[in-house]
Amino acid sequence: MASQLTLLEVWASPFSQRVKIALAEKGIDFEMKEENLLNKSPLLLNMNPVNKQIPVLIHNGKPICESLIIVQYIDELWNHKSPLLPSDPYKRAQARFWADYIDKKIYSIGRSLVFTKGETQETAKKELIECFKVLEAELGEKTYFGGETFGFVDITLIPFYGWFHVYETYGNLSMEEECPKIVTWAKRCMEKESVSKTLPDQYKVFDFITEMAKKFGAQ
Ligand code: GS8
What we know:
Elements: E1 5-9, H1 14-26, E2 31-34, H2 42-47, E3 56-59, E4 62-65, H3 67-77, H4 89-115, H5 118-139, H6 152-157, H7 164-171, H8 175-178, H9 180-190, H10 193-196, H11 202-216
Parallel strand pairs: 1-2
Antiparallel strand pairs: 1-3, 3-4
Bound molecules: S-Hydroxy-Glutathione.
């Protein structure tokens, strides 16, 4: 029987985008359902009653929650092509470490950059640049974080490329000047169809985030 796959998502969410890229890498078809987070659907509340957040992947009626857990599920289940995590246990642990680092830092610092002002915003700007520099050092001269092939850490980070224009405008900074290797890496990732077809235009993300900041932030 063919798998029934539905993704509860929001187009602008970097977390949803991780799942979409992973499924595209595996060549798996799925249905998308856009959620309104100000008026969550009964399906979302039912499928993720604990966190009530997107993304949720519903596979044959069963929910899987949390983007990085979903990506790992996809990798384990559809292991016929494009492995996302390395097979060596030590390398797997390292990939999970970096994905966790990105997860804990980038989104929340980026939000702080957008939704605060003054000293807090200045601190967020410094922290964000620092994080990207740490990631730049980890990338080193490799093609992707996973080495020669696009993998788990790349999928974790690349959706934030959609936010680069947001970072640059709110932080009054140049990503190219601060972390040129990350920009080159991001452009390389964008050459992959799984990524370019998934990531929204940076200006569209900017308009969306600015609208949110007007409604809910310090703007
Ligand atoms: C984060 C998901 C998340 O923040 C993951 O899947 O990796 N750790 C989770 N989802 C947000 C939308 S993206 O900004 C969300 O669903 N927010 C609604 C809410 O918290 O009520």
